[in-house]
């Protein structure tokens, strides 16, 4: 049982006697009034002995529920063919059927139930509109001040966007006809980029996925292709065994495409996507050569408004990126590797139990560093990867000090999956514990078996589990089967994946880590500054070294560093100009050392990078110093109209 039963996310559709096999959505977006309206057609098949269909929802207004008149053979014809499931002509046929029977649904806070259904296969239509309080959609202003909306990973998933069966095992295909206002464009998950019809923009997917992975972005953006300048690679003509439910699978056919994949970027006038466009092809090529063939047919990137409160959000074929990733002279481009890796880890292979999200996030975090390592020409890149791990452990340690202990175990020995334990807890939106515990499990595997053998095993892992939902047990068993060091691997899984506390992690380097030693040298200087401060000699490592230095200064037992020293340090390293991560850590130091004269820098950070500001708001308030608390409140009030509802709730709770 959970420690906070009222914060568990219920998965009520798991109790349904009918499974939705396919969705047809006709949606109209009113971007000025901030709502969607339309119809959802569900093609259902009886899987239980009862006669009740259950769909999950939250904060939706359903006006009518109807059964579309159709015989079971007609429904079967559509469901038995993936080609028919993506046909625009059949979409129009089904959604235009006039003969219908009105049904009497039963509404609960978290679901809608339709009882006493008579057929084994049927088509139901739910007419509805969204509500302003719904948490699935972020209605915000883009960086040019124009209205836009995005789905950015709500705690209630897509339940406030449309009614559906929201559980990892209840996978389906979908089609969408989307109407947007004149002058607006749309990007969604799915198999292609959509095409305009006289009635809207048409999208579809033929890949079986949980509908929680559906995402969209609507706005007035520019759009550019991302070119690849790569030579054709050797054909991979292997046919790889599939263990997943049937759907058109890229592993069931030869791979002719190599690393190239259709890519485009959407962005507002105030954004410069040039760095982004240069990095993406190289990152995709590096990931391809590690993990193998692409598992999604295209990748669209949307540079989100800075007011959206996440750094990145990956869904099938659509990746939303915060402009904070592109900030500074050494931007956090490696984060793009994290989001691209989610196509394999999290989308193509996902957790069977959503309480085990490390299966998605831990692998993607690990790949973030691996991809950066493989793309780098830096001679000390292995040492740099070790330094990144040190920095990540500091984040994990901070998270474990501030997050409810009941939320610190990232895997479950309990087979109960009818809820996501603490799935509605506010800490879920800010905690990186699943990311980092999963990451450190894989880092420990590198220590046990070596990096290159582990990367070979990861490709085998993809080919073995592609298209499947798995558990922690299956994942650990796979690596035990791949390597001889079974006891060591299981021991590390117990420490990092099943523990509800912070594991000890020793930074044992095989040789002297020069980069880490240089950080220690700089730390000693700032404890007792004399003469000119030292410089970090390697530009490629400098951002991570500055980050490590700031972390260690924050950890000093003697908390109070003279304000003059803090100002000198910031003038010397200019962390606010390196990237958003070093800027954030510099602001933490300013607040921790109560440097009043540097408060304008903190204010500017909160205005420029709202997605990274939640922790700082809390720290400003907890100083109990009026000038610091005023900065938190005034900055929030200045941003309030631009922020999405979920983030506003978190910040208001912290500062008022």
In short:
This protein is an alpha+beta fold. It is 37% helix and 19% strand.
What would you call the shape?
globular
Structural class call reads: alpha+beta
Low-confidence segments, ≥5 residues, pLDDT <50?
A: none
Strand order of the largest sheet: 6-5-9-3-2-12-15-14
Helix count equals 20
In which range does the helix fraction lie?
25-40%
Mean pLDDT: 92
> In percent, how much strand structure appears in the residues?
15-25%
Report how far the terminal alpha carbons are from each other. 32 Å
Write the layout of secondary structure elements.
Blueprint: E1 9-10, E2 18-30, E3 35-46, E4 53-56, E5 60-68, H1 72-79, H2 82-85, H3 88-95, E6 100-102, E7 106-107, E8 111-114, E9 121-130, E10 138-141, E11 147-150, E12 171-179, E13 185-188, E14 195-197, E15 200-210, E16 216-219, E17 222-225, E18 263-267, H4 274-291, E19 299-303, E20 312-315, E21 318-321, H5 334-341, E22 350-351, H6 358-375, H7 381-402, E23 419-420, H8 433-449, H9 451-465, E24 469-470, H10 472-482, H11 486-496, H12 514-527, H13 542-555, H14 563-573, H15 575-578, H16 580-592, H17 599-608, H18 614-622, H19 626-639, H20 645-655
Parallel strand pairs: 2-12, 18-19, 19-21, 22-24
Antiparallel strand pairs: 1-23, 2-3, 3-9, 4-8, 5-6, 5-9, 7-8, 10-11, 11-16, 12-15, 13-16, 14-15, 17-18, 20-21
């Amino acid at each position: 049982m959970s420690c906070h039963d009222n914060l568990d996310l219920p998965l009520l559709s798991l109790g349904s006697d009918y499974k939705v096999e396919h969705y047809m959505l006709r949606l109209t977006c009113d971007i000025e009034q901030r709502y969607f309206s339309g119809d959802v057609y569900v093609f259902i098949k009886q899987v239980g002995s009862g006669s009740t269909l259950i769909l999950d929802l939250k904060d939706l207004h359903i006006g009518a529920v109807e059964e579309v008149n159709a015989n079971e053979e007609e429904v079967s014809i559509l469901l038995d063919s993936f080609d028919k499931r993506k046909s625009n002509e059949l979409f129009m046929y089904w959604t235009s059927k006039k003969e219908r029977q009105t049904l009497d649904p039963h509404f609960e806070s978290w679901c809608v139930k339709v009882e006493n259904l008579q057929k084994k296969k049927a088509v139901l239509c739910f007419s509805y509109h969204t509500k302003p309080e719904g948490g699935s959609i972020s209605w915000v202003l883009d960086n040019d001040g124009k209205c836009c909306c995005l789905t950015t990973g709500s705690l209630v998933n897509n339940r406030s966007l449309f009614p559906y069966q929201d559980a990892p095992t209840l996978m389906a295909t979908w089609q969408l006809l989307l109407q947007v206002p004149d002058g607006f464009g749309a990007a969604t998950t799915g198999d292609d980029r959509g095409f305009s019809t006289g009635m809207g923009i048409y999208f579809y997917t033929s890949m079986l996925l949980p509908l929680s992975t559906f995402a969209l972005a609507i706005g007035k953006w520019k759009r550019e292709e991302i070119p690849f300048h790569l030579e054709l690679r050797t054909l991979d003509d292997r046919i790889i065994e599939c263990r997943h439910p049937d759907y058109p699978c890229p592993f069931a056919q030869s791979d002719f495409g190599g690393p190239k994949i259709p890519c485009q970027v959407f962005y507002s006038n105030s954004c410069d996507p040039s760095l982004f466009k240069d990095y993406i092809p190289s990152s995709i090529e590096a990931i391809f050569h590690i993990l193998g063939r692409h598992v999604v047919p295209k990748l669209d990137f949307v540079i989100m408004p800075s007011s959206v409160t996440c750094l990145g959000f990956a869904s099938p074929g659509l990746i939303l990126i915060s402009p904070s990733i592109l900030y500074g002279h050494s931007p956090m481009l490696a984060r793009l590797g994290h989001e691209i890796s989610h196509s394999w880890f999290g989308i193509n292979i996902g957790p069977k139990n959503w309480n085990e999200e490390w299966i998605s996030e831990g692998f993607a975090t690990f790949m973030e560093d691996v991809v950066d390592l493989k793309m780098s020409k830096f001679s000390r890149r292995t040492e740099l990867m070790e330094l990144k791990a040190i920095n990540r452990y500091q984040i994990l340690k901070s998270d474990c000090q501030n997050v409810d202990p009941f939320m610190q175990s990232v895997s479950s020995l309990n087979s109960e999956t009818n809820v996501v334990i603490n799935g509605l807890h506010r800490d879920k939106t800010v905690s990186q514990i699943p990311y980092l515990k999963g990451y450190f499990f894989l880092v420990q595997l590198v220590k046990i078996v070596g990096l290159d053998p582990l990367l070979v095993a990861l490709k085998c892992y993809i080919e073995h589990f592609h298209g499947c939902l798995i558990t922690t047990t299956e994942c650990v068993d796979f690596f035990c089967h791949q390597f001889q060091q079974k006891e060591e691997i299981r021991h590390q899984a117990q420490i990092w994946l099943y523990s509800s506390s912070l594991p000890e992690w020793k930074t044992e380097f095989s040789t002297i880590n020069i980069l880490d030693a240089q950080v220690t040298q700089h730390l000693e200087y700032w404890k007792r500054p004399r003469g000119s401060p030292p410089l970090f000699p390697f530009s490629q490592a400098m951002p991570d070294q500055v980050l490590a230095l700031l972390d260690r200064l924050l950890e000093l037992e003697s908390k109070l560093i003279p304000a003059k020293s803090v100002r000198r340090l910031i003038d010397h390293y200019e962390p606010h100009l390196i990237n958003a991560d070093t800027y954030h850590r510099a602001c933490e130091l300013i607040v921790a050392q109560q440097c009043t004269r540097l408060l304008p820098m903190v204010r500017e950070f909160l205005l420029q990078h709202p997605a990274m500001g939640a922790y700082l708001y809390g720290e400003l308030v907890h100083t109990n110093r009026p000038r610091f608390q005023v900065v938190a409140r005034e900055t929030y009030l200045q941003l309030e109209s631009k922020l999405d509802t979920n983030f506003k709730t978190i910040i208001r709770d912290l500062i008022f």
